[in-house]
Amino acid sequence: MTSQITTGASAVAGAPRSRRLGELVFVGVIVVFAGVALVMTGFIREPVGSSNVLGARVVPYAVTGLMLLASVAAFVAVLRGDVGAPDEGEDVDTEARTSWKTVGLLALAFASLMIVIPIAGWPAAVVVLFAGASLALGASSWWKALLLGLGLGVLTQLLFGNLLGLSLPPFGTILPGLVEGTGVLGG
What tens digit of pLDDT does each residue of 31-77 get? Predict the structure, then answer.
């Protein structure tokens, strides 16, 4: 089955005004984010006496510049009438309403990182995040979600915290004495 994608004036005529407005708002938010990121990149401090040829600002300027360029081009394209084709998929119910309970639970799972990381450390925070998101999205077994979250938390701590040397706190304020001095998870 093939579907034609219409662009230009015929797409604007066939597209609901709310969908076109939604695309303009989405692209406008990306333009604003890119602009803010571009300005904030100027506040990155370079270490005094750094022998880096490129410096710490080159990649952020390049990425945010490309992001700004692409988002402005998309904004102009939407204004000219090039709107995206509506979603059609075999696993998408276009008539289904948004499950605000699921959205709220996912937001809560992500927000839990702000509390759990300082108190219990990165691996425990990943357990809470993964288990919460899995259960919010309909996982049938809570203990499998917890075990997978634990595996992901420990794996990311070992890979990124220990091997790459990133600053992921292995323990928060309540867990430091538990594994202190054993060398496990960077403790």
Answer: 999 989 989 988 888 777 766 667 778 888 999 999 999 999 998 88
CA distance 21 to 65: 25
Q: Does residue 54 lie in a domain region? A: yes
Q: Which of 65, 86, 95, 100 is nearest to 19 (CA)?
A: 86
In order, the DSSP letters of 39-70 are HHHTTPPPPTT---SS-TTHHHHHHHHHHHHH
Residues 158 and 122 in one domain: yes
176 shares its domain with 110: yes
**Structural domain for 20, as ranges:** 9-80
Give this prediction's pTM. 0.53
Residue identified by tokens 């040829």 is: 53
